[in-house]
Amino acid sequence: MSGAPGSGEGRHAHTYDLRAFTGVEAWVFDLDNTLYPAHVNLFAQIDKRISEYIARLLSMDEASARVRQKEYYRDYGTTLRGLMMEHQIEPDDFLAYVHDIDYSPVQPDPKLGAAIAALPGRKFIFTNGDRPHAERTAAALGITDHFEDIFDIVAAGLMPKPNRESYELFLQKTGVAPARAAMFEDLTRNLLVPHKLGMRTVLIVPQGTREVFREAWEMEGQDAPHVDFATDDLGGFLEAVLGALKAG
């Protein structure tokens, strides 16, 4: 893992370290808790809708449904995958239900939009959610026009991250060369395969927790190497990357 504390944008990583992004031609961003900060808590609405869906489907109380939801998430990567494998549900109904939420907590982020627009090369959203959810979220952030495409759970053949097949299908469909790509995620497990493929990896953590996460990785030992950088401010991190690329 690279990076050092400090002041301003420089707290994300040393300028020398950020030159690791030299040659990157594709910038790949997860959606939830990555392109918008975790404190917006949009995913909490989705999480509750998932529990409600399971409770209705399996005729159980919501507390029991939540336990089942987390079991599916742990065992299959997404609750949807678990429901498909164990209950043969139709994904369209599930995706429409769980993403029927209030997007007003997501505010426009001109700083992030300008930084993404300035990145050299192609930009993608790669999400375990569906395209309509990604489109609504990107629109609320005001960043829609900066992305070439959205690679969603449907495009992935309903095979979610962190399964290697999902990343390989993304690379196949987009023509992205992993050695010239960077992946931004809020879940460490979703960065393991990108790192193995040769991508630069950036973990997005909740605001004010970057150093706590850094210390946790150091204690984890073998888990640390697949996270190259960490930041609790995606827009600021991208500005720092742009500065390093310009200086380099």
TrEMBL record:
Coiled coil: none
Listed InterPro entries: HAD-like_sf (IPR036412), HAD-SF_hydro_IA (IPR006439), HAD_sf (IPR023214), Pyr-5-nucltdase (IPR010237)
Highest taxon of the lineage: Bacteria
NCBIfam families: HAD-SF-IA-v3, Pyr-5-nucltdase
Protein name (database record): Pyrimidine 5'-nucleotidase
Source organism: Pannonibacter tanglangensis
